[in-house]
Amino acid sequence: MSERILITGITGFVGSHLADYVLSLDGKYQVIGTKRWHLSRMDNVRHIQDRITWIDCDLTDPISTREMMNIAKPDRIFHCAAESFVSPSWKNPQRYMAMNYNATVNLLDWLHQNKSSAPFHIPGSGEEYGDIPEDKLPITPETVLLPVNPYAVTKIAQDLIGFVYHKSYGINVIRTRAFNHEGPRRDKVFGIPWYAYQVAMVEAGKMDPLLKVGHIDDRRNFTHVRDMVEAYWIASTKCRPGELYLVGSEAPETIYTFRQALEMLIGMSTVKGIRHETDPQYVRPTQVPRLIADTKKFRDDTGWEPKISFQTILSETLDYWRERVRLGTA
């Protein structure tokens, strides 16, 4: 009998790549995905839409969530549904708490009430650490959390309520905090896809060769989304429930500022002389200047290692937006 794999947020960036990964395995898995009947965009999963069992659900509604889980009866859960774009969180803090915290409680409560032993993966964010001083790097699971935006606060709440349900009721919660992961399908409201989209628009003759950017000097360690979803899958089988794991590339050749990423994308363009300037509308009230992780605990417990280069992240992201611009779907 096939193992039932539930992926919330399956139509999004990470969820769709995770579905691709699970469906590429040996066929023992039935992929179940949640969608909102009136809001979900299907572009990211169009190529696998017929291979997914779909259930309409609003995860912020406990009744809707309970009914969905009664149908899904999952053997393993990847909770990828989230409000993940940082900038709107200042203006919509309650929406972020409803989606990132309340929805998680609804799922956890079903697992508790039904005495489920299903592994429940909560993918946290390096953003939870906030403004870490240079001398406190690299970040470890013991690093003090210093969040500087509402999104980060809601992700901390999500993570900690998962820990509470594990300690209180023995729920098999798998806790990870992922550092920056990029690649095709990420919305252009985020830094690297926004730069790539504008480069593609310039190449298509649809905008002047002057890119608008926000603050671009923050430094990150970058991982390809395909490496990240493999890490999530491995985490669900090898990580110890309740323990916290940091996930991401940490080799020197994966650590860059957004300025460097922008300049590399411009260098990949077929158009010469592209420039960029700061536009105040893209500058956030607070910045997170550096997120560099020590992921040794995760690598030691799972054997996972990232394989895809930062240059591939950039080239695949640029090609993705070139195709979207060509098709008129950007």
TrEMBL record:
<dbReference type="InterPro" id="IPR036291">
    <property type="entry name" value="NAD(P)-bd_dom_sf"/>
</dbReference>
<dbReference type="Pfam" id="PF16363">
    <property type="entry name" value="GDP_Man_Dehyd"/>
</dbReference>
<feature type="domain" description="NAD(P)-binding">
    <location>
        <begin position="6"/>
        <end position="317"/>
    </location>
</feature>
<dbReference type="InterPro" id="IPR016040">
    <property type="entry name" value="NAD(P)-bd_dom"/>
</dbReference>
<protein>
    <submittedName>
        <fullName>GDP-mannose 4 6-dehydratase</fullName>
    </submittedName>
</protein>
